[in-house]
Amino acid sequence: MAKGGKGKFKIANPQEQLDKVKIDKYKIGEKGVSFYDIREMKPVFAFDYLSLNSSDLCYDCSTLTLEDYLGLLTALKTNSQFTYNDLRVNKYYRFHPINFDEDNISIKRKDFKKALSFKPDEIPDDELPTLYQFDLHYHQKARACGFLYKGIFYLVWFDRNHIIYPGGK
After folding, report:
1. Is residue 14 domain-resident?
2. Distances (CA, A) of 9 to 5, 13, 19, 64
3. How many domains does the chain divide into?
4. Is the pTM higher than 0.70?
């Protein structure tokens, strides 16, 4: 490896590059990075916060079918080929933040807090990550919901019947 000097260049050490990148798992209340800073990253999906309490928005809902699970996996594979910004600007993916203050939304911040913690009352609203949704493509009313933390998309809910935005968004 060249050590520098005129007309020479230094080849990057891969281990030094990896040491600069520190991706921690999400901890409640911990600030991530802005969407702007990760917009050119491709999604990586995590399952740490999957909602599994058998409700209509959970990944273990009794009405979900094999088609639903295959649709989810196909969408995760498809969406991971694009950057977050590609997903945001292409209306086909319906990738956008969920605004808890809109009148036509059926969930509340407390529902999101319950999905993140066993002590939801201890989480201040301003410490909640931004909740996003994206289309799963296999069925008109199928969406996955979750949040971004340092470029990782943590899946939370499987909105198979468009429950979160019943009027369509």
Report:
1. no
2. 7, 12, 21, 56
3. 1
4. yes
Nearest to 135 by CA among 94, 165, 90, 81: 94
Q: Exposed/middle/buried for 45, CB within 10 Å: 0-12, 13-18, 19+?
A: middle
Question: Distance (Å, rounded) from C-alpha 9 to C-alpha 99?
Answer: 49
Each residue of 131-166: pLDDT tens digit?
A: 999 999 888 789 999 999 988 999 999 999 889 987
Contact 75, 138 (CB under 8 A): yes
* Helix spans in the chain (H): 14-20, 35-38, 66-79, 84-89, 109-116
Q: Where are the beta strands (DSSP E) in the chain?
A: 44-46, 96-97, 131-135, 143-149, 152-159
Contact 78, 137 (CB under 8 A): yes
Written as one letter, the residue type at 100 is F
Question: Which residues span the domain enclosing 99?
Answer: 43-159
Do 71 and 138 form a contact (C-beta atoms < 8 A)?
A: yes
Question: What would the pLDDT profile of 14-25 be if each residue is shown by its tens digit?
Answer: 566 545 555 667
Sign of CA dihedral 26, 73, 141, 96: positive
